[in-house]
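> forwarded from #structure-qc
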């Protein structure tokens, strides 16, 4: 059995299971992330900050002194030529965690205001599509005294608890923890 639920949910799922690594599941602390997705109907409708020559040199912008953390230009990614212009914005994890239960419309309005300030659009260059999503379990907090947990294996039951939260709670960790899970399963089959 493989459990890839976020650790806050995996604790509850595995509580009376006899999983030998139960106590380890609680160790990582997770933080939320709000994601704002914006789209435009054409390249011509983009604000100047997204269609100038400097922008084509970057795919991700890291923000400072803002509730925002990163801005991703989606339509510039490889094999995304057919996409309408769009960006994805992640709010800072600490800010998201502090506002995790706030009303999504309020969060969207605050995120939009911060993004408008960063990208400097006006009425004519405002996005035509907007969506906001909350990821309650988005990033693993790794402090200097702790290290990545890694996948949790109970060979006596043939159980694995895994997920990006076992690493750094990012997309790279999804891949790395999946590879470790496959390796653990393969090792028991051999």
């Amino acid at each position: 059995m493989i459990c890839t639920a976020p650790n806050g949910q995996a604790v509850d799922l595995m509580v009376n299971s006899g999983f030998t690594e139960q106590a380890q599941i609680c160790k990582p602390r997770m933080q939320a992330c709000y994601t704002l997705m914006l789209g435009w109907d054409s390249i011509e409708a983009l604000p100047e900050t997204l269609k100038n020559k400097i922008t084509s040199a970057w795919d991700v912008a890291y923000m400072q002194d803002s509730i925002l953390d990163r801005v991703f230009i989606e339509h510039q990614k490889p094999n995304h030529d057919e996409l309408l212009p769009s960006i994805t914005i992640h709010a800072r994890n600490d800010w998201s965690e502090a506002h995790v239960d706030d009303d999504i419309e309020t969060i969207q309005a605050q995120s939009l205001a911060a993004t408008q300030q960063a990208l400097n659009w006006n009425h004519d260059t405002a996005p035509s599509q907007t969506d906001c999503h909350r990821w309650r379990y988005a990033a693993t907090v790794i402090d200097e005294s702790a290290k990545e947990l890694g996948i949790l294996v109970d060979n006596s039951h043939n159980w694995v608890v895994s997920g990006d939260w076992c690493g750094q709670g990012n997309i790279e960790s999804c891949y790395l923890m999946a590879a470790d899970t496959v390796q653990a399963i393969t090792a028991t089959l051999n």
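QC bot note: The beta strands are 2-3, 29-39, 60-62, 68-73, 86-91, 129-141, 152-154, 159-161. The chain has two domains: 2-28+149-189, 30-141.
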